[in-house]
UniProtKB/TrEMBL annotation, chains A, B:
Start and end residues of each SIS domain: 31-175, 197-338
UniProt GO molecular function: carbohydrate derivative binding
Organism: Thermoactinomyces daqus
Domain of life: Bacteria
Protein name: SIS domain-containing protein
Lineage: Bacteria, Bacillati, Bacillota, Bacilli, Bacillales
């Protein structure tokens, strides 16, 4: 097998998570003081593409753990539709995520918020020498995560983990931080267990339409699974909240569809019904979750982490990334060089 | 031509808008008093499927016009992930949208919010005798909008218009209300002008993949355009924010793709660049907007309303609905009875 950048970057994730945990915990006192001094009333996460999907998952964890209202918007909305993003009555922290730190929309979002005194700006990026890092008030540097591939893999999980660590550090939630600290070790076990499954499933040519389902924080992860497959293979792939899927989109199901549900332990009874419908309409149901016991579906991927829904998020990704990777190889495409894409999107205007 | 329910319900929209305007304005003093007494600090719009897409568009207009923070979530998130939806520190109004008023998730969302004293509940529904209408504290009844088709058409535009009227009534924004009052007359003209185009484009068999792009409030409308096509034809259809589209999904473009951009006058320079990329990769670009002048694209649909981006939203829908309708007829399917769908989604649990 050719050792592509994508493959290496997927496989080394648990080791990079260890370093992200070390980085964030070493900054704990400082970020607590920053938030205490600012007394923010809301936190808005933003990014583009993969980094926007980080934002969706991060915001759900952040609000749950800190009690501060948190949500996510694409970076373009921040400076093009600021009236529907910011409320001048509130003290806001804007958290911008970007692998390169040079994506025009994220840089412009931070600039816009600072120039108009709309928010304190916090950045999470893998490039300490970048416009985003330069312009933000506070930065989480992930300089140990340098990716050569066009598609983002380890940068997604590390930026998400950094945001989750922030969500645990601020309220001093030691139980949550304890769960996050276990991720590197559990992640190594998960990757060792899921790779051959991902390879087999990636070689399966029976499905031309992939549907990713996830709720709450898992909706961000499901979107990222969808985007990996779409970017690398151009296969038709979509994401829905599992209950929303029934309100119209379920009409597309047939035997060419593989539905990949990212299970949340807390909503299991609803998930069972959605999966029953998926199978009733002739589609294939693959469920990835922590423990799936007697769940009736076609393929089960068990993470067996024992972690809560909001802590184990990054553990879903290696399987989803490897599935896209092996599907790409089977199609004879180069995972490192997907069609129509550049590594950083720069706007002309 | 068979006079399907779907067709009749699309065509009669401007007349129903007239009645929705009358209903909302007759309730102006009452809803202003309700909001003044409650002093809400945020407004959360919710719904399922088409009604969730109403919520996305409604929240953008609501925050812009009232200055109150407003956003949207799928109804299932309200009761299954309340910790990432509600902040106990804030006084919240939850606006639930549902054509039937009996969709389990919306009813459960309202029940959950009331039982836990999380929000004052406002409902927008076409069925005054429904669980949603019974359980909500305040209701906008759209009893003049009764639909027989499974797919929602006029109920989308009328629920959105009702929410927009609320957004104009509360701050007493007479300019915005004046724009909304012109919609029925302009809508009649738009439908008369766009139907033959929608019919021609609906018969065009060159495209198997439809991509809808829209930003801000237009993102909700783009989603609804996508869902109509998906529900009725099961063709591949997706929605993106136009700038987000470049961050990965653009890799899918080829000559089988038709991209439908719902233009916002305020972001035209960015839209031009996205459309240039769409054409560079061999796809077909259809743009629908108010005035498109020298916009370089394959097909232009001009609304010519003279209304602002946040007022003319419902005018995009007749073309998008008719396009899906005529595509459905061309495929030999019954628009009134889409595959795998029921009119109301009821949960077992």
């Amino acid at each position: 097998m050719v050792q592509t950048h994508t493959y290496q970057e997927i496989k080394r994730q648990p080791e990079t998570w260890r370093q992200t945990i070390g980085m964030a915990l070493s900054r704990a006192d400082e970020v607590k003081q920053t938030f205490a001094a600012l007394q923010p009333e809301e936190v808005i996460f933003t990014g583009c593409g993969t980094s926007y999907y980080v934002s969706i998952a991060a915001a759900a964890a952040f609000q749950e753990k800190t009690g501060l209202p948190a949500w996510s918007v694409p970076a373009s909305e921040v400076f093009l539709n600021p009236g529907s993003v910011f409320s001048k009555k509130r003290k806001t922290i804007l958290v911008g995520c970007s692998r390169s730190g040079n994506t025009t929309e994220v840089v412009r979002a931070i600039e816009f918020a600072r120039q108009n005194k709309l928010a304190h700006c916090f950045a999470i990026t893998t490039r300490p020498s970048s416009q985003l890092a330069d312009k933000a008030d506070t930065v989480f540097h992930l300089s140990h995560v340098q990716e050569n591939s066009v598609v983002m893999t380890g940068s997604f999980t590390n930026m998400l983990l950094a945001a989750q660590l922030l969500a645990g550090i601020l309220p001093g939630d030691e139980a949550y931080l304890g769960e996050l600290k276990r991720l590197p070790e559990i992640g190594e076990d998960v990757i060792a267990r899921v790779e051959s499954l991902a390879k087999d499933i990636g070689k399966d040519r029976n499905f031309s339409h992939y549907i990713y389902l996830g709720m709450g924080a898992q909706f961000g992860l499901a979107n990222e699974g969808m985007l990996k497959l779409k970017e690398m293979t151009q296969l038709f792939s979509e994401t829905f909240n599992p209950l929303e899927f029934r309100h119209g989109p379920i009409s597309v199901l047939d035997e060419k569809c593989r539905v990949i549900l990212l299970s949340s332990q807390s909503i299991r009874p609803y998930e069972r019904d959605v999966v029953d419908d998926v199978r009733k309409f002739g589609a294939n149901a693959l469920v990835i979750g922590d423990r799936l016991e007697d769940f009736q579906c076609d393929i089960k991927i068990e993470l067996n982490s024992g972690l809560t829904d909001l802590a184990r998020g990054v553990l879903y990704l290696p399987f989803l990334q490897l599935l896209a990777y092996y599907r790409t190889l089977d199609l004879g495409l180069n995972p490192d060089r997907p069609r129509n894409l550049d590594k950083v999107v720069l706007l002309k205007n």
